[in-house]
Amino acid sequence: MLKRLDKIRFRGQRRDEFLDLAESPNTSDTECTDEVVMKPRMSIREPSEELSVEGEQQSDAQAGPGSFSAALQDDSRTDLNEVKGHLEIALLEKHFLQEELRKLKEESNVDSLKQELEKERCRRIELEQKVNDALRSRLEDSPSQTPKVPPPPQPAGSGTDKQRETLSNSFLKWLYDRFGVYIEDFRFQPEEKTVETDEPLSGKRLTENMRRLKRGFRPVTNFMRNLSALSSWYSVYTSAIAFIFYMYAAWHGWAIPMFLFLAILRLSLNYLISKGWRIQWSIVPEVSEPMEPSKEDLTVSEKFQLVLDVAQKAQNLFGKMANILEKIKNLFMWVQPELTQKLYVGLWVAFISSCLLPYKLLGFIIAVYAGIKFFIIDFIFKSCPKLRQRFDTPYIIWTNLPTDLQLKERSSTTLSRRVPAAGGRGSLSAAAPLGVSRDEDGGRYYSTKRGAFHEVFSLPESERPLTVCENGWRCCLINRDRRTPTDYIRNGVLYVTENYLCFESSSSRSGSSKRNKVIKLLDIKEIQKYKVLSVLPGSGMGISIATPSTQKPMVFGAMMHRDEAFDAIFTQYNKILGVATAASPET
């Protein structure tokens, strides 16, 4: 009986080979009744097994009714357990097969693959049809359809013709292999246009570009400074030696070879410098630039001031370039006819001389004149400014040429100036010639928003703003001696001339001219940098000036370019003070 139970229990796979029931999915027993067809447990047994089973049954029947009933109960229980195990196995297999089928569908999209396969088939069929059509058309066009005639016997010279053809073909092939690459270079192709993307605005990039521009212009500025020093006889021995060598080369017609030799010498020196040699030759000692602090050590206000300085330098650089271009344009467009007329006459003289004189003599005259002009005439003109303003024709033309901005200012002042009716003909004649007025002495027209500079501040006509402050510095004047707020703080523009410090108030009231401030530089007792608000970081944005007429020093605050203004005022103050002290012992 025990043997029969073991056979029935382990007829299928063992229960321990399958997953644990706790790991099986939560499915009901009726979930796959439609798919799994339960087969009867009756199996076809072999005859030997049946005989053994019958023998066992007979022996069991003989054993007694108690043991037979117990065996039947054990048999039914084992059959139920076996059926339950098979059912669980079928459910697990179904679940796993469904998961695999879902994964396969996700990984390989059968429909898309079928569509692509159909497209490829259609494309292949079309290509085959095209190939067949092309072959048919060639066969129809070729004279091969005519009946083939046996080739006539070749003449005796056909072999030599074939050899010539092969030699020519090989020679052409060699030429193409050797020079075909160079011939392909001359093939015309449309030019490809690439559009460069603009970089976004960045203060860091702006600062770095300005530094790069400064470093790039440094060799040019050093060269121009050395030329100016050579012309000004900064070093007498160097200028004398250069003048003698140049005039000797110009006299013998070696001016151009001399310049080429100097260029070769300069390149050779640069090569040695690039290899590590320390070679330094300069007429004027080079000015060592201050070391810029690292950006990590700068405060917020210093970084903001750095960006403002870079923006100011860019503005001034663009302004100078615009002035040069506008002056050249106005020179050729006859904006100032008396100036363009001189250029016109000079070009006619040069043209007639080039037509009549031989080129050797013409080159000799130009080289000698250039040497005398550079070494002698320019030195005299730089030493005597009055002679330069009267006789230096290129300087007079360039300085008197107006820019577009100056022309606009002149037209605006002409329209805004009101001439009183009782002024008479004299006032009209004084107001009319603004193009060549007294304010243009030296070729420059200086004016403020309210008129001519000397008229606004009631100063002599010779008093004009210095070059460093032609447009002035915007600031606010803090007069701590006044009590009322309108007199305590005034917004305006600060100028410095040769002898005065002028503040123009920006108030538009009728009494604004009385609110302007003029300080004589010799009356200044003390000038120093000032920090209006000690709470803010940085060194401040103000200048403190003490005079005898004020109890407390006046402060020019909120000045964006405080350091530049302070240096200009302090330099001019020391200059005037030195002239006054030098003149006092003589008197």
From TrEMBL:
It comes from the Eukaryota. Residues 451-531 form the GRAM domain. The chain crosses the membrane at residues 227-248, 254-273. The keyword Transmembrane applies. InterPro entries: GRAM (IPR004182), GRAMDC4 (IPR037847), GRAMDC4_PH-GRAM (IPR037845), PH-like_dom_sf (IPR011993). GO terms for biological process: apoptotic process; negative regulation of toll-like receptor 9 signaling pathway. Keywords: Membrane, Transmembrane, Transmembrane helix. Residues 21-72, 136-163 are annotated as: Disordered. SMART domains: GRAM. PANTHER family: GRAM DOMAIN-CONTAINING PROTEIN 4 (PTHR37402:SF1). This is GRAM domain containing 4. The lineage of its organism: Eukaryota, Metazoa, Chordata, Craniata, Vertebrata.
